Amino acid sequence: VQLQASGGGLAQAGGSLRLSCAASGGTFSNYNAGWFRQAPGKDREFVGAITWSGSTVYADSVKGRFTISRDKAKKTAYLQMNNLKFEDTAVYYCAASRIVLSGIRDGSNYGYWGQGTQVTVSS
């Protein structure tokens, strides 16, 4: 599975952005799709994920502000980010995995990664 993330950019605090993760070369509908981010000088962190069956999981820091969805026909997963905060500034990565739900927050369980897209939130 090859993944291509897009949609990053500059937003003001309180604004919104939508990231897309387009898949090719595999049966993306059978995979869980995860979103991770890495800010400068910090470790990569889990943002959220959507399972192959449509269940979603979010990090506490984004719960209620971010929403993950997927369009199986388009082989694309989305990360809708609302009420953005300065601390959301990071490079965002999408990833695919077949891991069970209990392991979905761990990036090491993902075998396929997109190239990352920069999100910058101005305060």
Question: What's the short version?
Answer:
This protein has 123 residues and is mainly beta.
Short descriptors:
mainly beta, 123 residues, 50% strand, single chain, 11 strands
Task: Report on this structure.
The structure is a single chain. This protein is mostly beta strands and 123 residues long. The chain has strands at 2-6, 9-12, 17-24, 32-38, 45-50, 56-58, 66-71, 76-81, 90-97, 112-113, 117-122. Strands 2, 4, 5, 6, 9, 10 and 11 form a seven-stranded mixed β-sheet that branches. A four-stranded antiparallel β-sheet has the order 1-3-8-7, with no helix packed on it. It is globular.
What is the topology?
Blueprint: E1 2-6, E2 9-12, E3 17-24, E4 32-38, E5 45-50, E6 56-58, E7 66-71, E8 76-81, E9 90-97, E10 112-113, E11 117-122
Parallel strand pairs: 2-11
Antiparallel strand pairs: 1-3, 3-8, 4-5, 4-9, 5-6, 7-8, 9-10, 9-11
